[in-house]
Design goal:
338 residues; mainly alpha; 3-stranded antiparallel beta sheet; 15 helices
Length: 338
């Protein structure tokens, strides 16, 4: 009787909402009011603290709720995601394809802008390049052992030669781009993870140096040339921070492809990167990744809606696995997971 007493008018909406689902969900007083005393009483009753009769009533109430919630699984999934049915993995597959496509388009734009800047004769101050090389070298020496920093330091020594060539030396952008392509090729070919990390750190510091070179007065050329160079660096910076590279976080892992053009992570693997294996408990960095996906594809996009639906379906599927069962071995819908 205590679990079925009338509730205050302000709580009546909770009850009404539950009854409007395709399979109406019966609620106890504690479910509606969310009052700790009410919920404590109901929990105690279900544990048998108030006798077998009260325990039987509460157990049956929870079984009825569970049956109703399982019956609403498809409705809940569609309510949180896309309007159409979605196959397992389809939501993440669409997200991967969209993000990869957007990244490739951005890369193409950046390449065209950079090529235009190179052809315009933009030059970078040699002493500035040398200063960067010396600063980056100190950073690499401080963070990597002699056994792993050698290749990175060799590339920096090649840049440092500009200071030895004379104070008025300037480097063409295409020469610097060739240097960057060389270090990128070695990153792809290197199998030692720490050597690779040192090379990547060197390339990232170089990119940061070029990003600020115009504002630092190290780049020369006419106004149009400088504008093209700055546009190219802006595009590459967006690609590096939003899609590819360390700053892109899990997004980078999700959209990586093999040399044959296949995603390294299948949709299920990509989902595991974002969600834990059981349900939608978030892993480290996953909240940021989900927010990144929403920002990149758009909150109203079919890709985002599909991913939301996939997340809910993953949660609901998790209730059919493992030991999530009641006393009669029936499947239990996990409110905590939800």
């Amino acid at each position: 009787q205590a679990t079925r007493r009338a509730v205050a008018p302000e709580n009546a909406a909770e009850f009404a909402d539950a009854r409007t689902l395709p399979v109406p969900v019966p609620l106890t007083r504690g479910d509606v009011t969310r009052s700790i005393p009410d919920q404590r009483f109901e929990s105690g009753a279900q544990k048998g603290n108030f006798g077998e009769s009260a325990q039987s009533v509460m157990e049956q109430a929870r079984k009825d709720q569970n049956t109703a919630l399982q019956g609403n699984a498809d409705f809940l999934a569609k309510g949180f995601g896309a309007a159409d049915d979605i196959a397992e993995g389809e939501g993440m597959r669409a997200v991967q394809a969209r993000l990869r496509q957007d990244a490739d388009q951005l890369k193409s734009l950046g390449k065209r802008a950079y090529d235009a800047a190179k052809d315009s004769g933009v030059m970078v101050d040699g002493k500035g390049i040398s200063g960067f090389a010396q600063t980056a070298g100190r950073s690499i020496r401080a963070n990597f052992t002699p056994a792993t920093r050698g290749p990175a330091l060799k590339y920096l020594e090649d840049l440092d030669k500009f200071s030895r060539a004379g104070s008025n030396v300037k480097a063409k952008i295409n020469a610097l781009e060739a240097w960057r392509q060389d270090i990128s090729a070695e990153i792809r070919e290197t199998t030692n993870d720490r050597v690779k990390a040192a090379l990547i750190a060197t390339r990232e510091q170089f990119d940061s140096f070029l990003d600020g070179a115009v504002d630092a007065g190290l780049v020369t050329g006419d106004a149009g040339s400088l504008g093209m160079f700055k546009e190219a660096r802006t595009i590459w910076n967006r690609l590096r921070t939003k899609y590819e590279g360390k700053d892109a976080g899990l997004i980078n892992d999700i959209i990586k492809k093999t040399p044959d053009g296949e995603f390294i992570l299948e949709p299920e693997g990509a989902l595991r990167k974002v969600f834990t294996a059981n349900g939608v408990g978030f892993k480290n960095g996953a909240v940021r990744a989900v927010n990144q996906i929403k920002d990149l594809v758009g909150e109203d996009s079919p890709e985002w809606m599909g991913l939301k639906q996939e997340a809910v379906m993953r949660l609901l599927r998790s209730n059919t696995k493992g030991n999530n069962r009641g006393g009669d071995a029936e499947l239990i819908f996990s409110g905590d997971k939800f």
